[in-house]
Amino acid sequence: MDKQKCPVPVFIPLIVGIVAVSFSSIFVKLSDAPVSVQGMYRLLFTVLFMLPFAGKQFKHTKQVTPRQWLLLFLSGMFLALHFLLWMGSLKLTTVASSTIILALQPVFVLIGAFFLFKERTTAASLAGMGVAICGAVLIGWGDVGISPENLLGDVLSLLGTFAVAVHMLIGQHLLRRIPSYFYSLSVFVSAIAVFAFYNLGAGIPMAGYSKHDWTVFFLLAIVPTVFGHVLFNWLMKYVSATTISVNILGEPVGASILAYFMLNEHISAFQAAGGFLVCTGLYLFLRTNRPSHHVKDPAVSHGV
User: Fold this and answer.
1) Number of domains comprising the chain
2) In a domain? residue 264
3) What is the pTM of this model?
4) Is residue 95 part of a domain?
């Protein structure tokens, strides 16, 4: 089954999403609240923002099978795990180092999509992906963590990258049968529950934070989540998870620029050159990506 035609030029929501998610690491660093609390309220405020527009979405609950409910919960669990690990990495290493590792996400997604959905792509698009990944490596090359603390941050970011790839692949399967808005709401609620149980179990207070922290929680919900993750989930109806993942490679570029102006994290020559390569690789991938599918069951041929 082919993808639907996007009602707007694909590059517009992609650019909006990339700019939005680039603010995520900046906001995380601007708050001293535990990352599990930041992640929980980020998603809670997102759900509260989405509910007034949910409309007829709740009618879909009767159509969801027990297996799909389980997958929705697992997708939310891996999303929470991603936030917990990746946001935690930002407390230990720099924005550039953390986001460069996060940029390896399309590698995990492409491998997973190949084995799960038999999704293949062209040699030219793979070359574009390679150029973009090389550029992402250059972005963080001048700021690779060498202390034990920074190294732990790098490991956490890598594990968080694997978690979000699993989240996207589960969604790629579900979004063939479940509307994107209902999918996002269900997954976010599941992730909130995971965070709440984690905070309770770890004895982390969920109240008593400053006005500044609550502002950060709200901004995390509106900017990178609604205009980033929710927008990307919607786009999954029209483009593959691999395409979304490769375009998220633009995040290290945007985040590094924002970190320079907002956090005084300087950009090296390697990072500037890497930014150019990332943009070049993204352009090549968008121009040449033509995934093909060889799937016995058409119900699982695509989705995030």
Assistant:
1) 1
2) yes
3) 0.81
4) yes
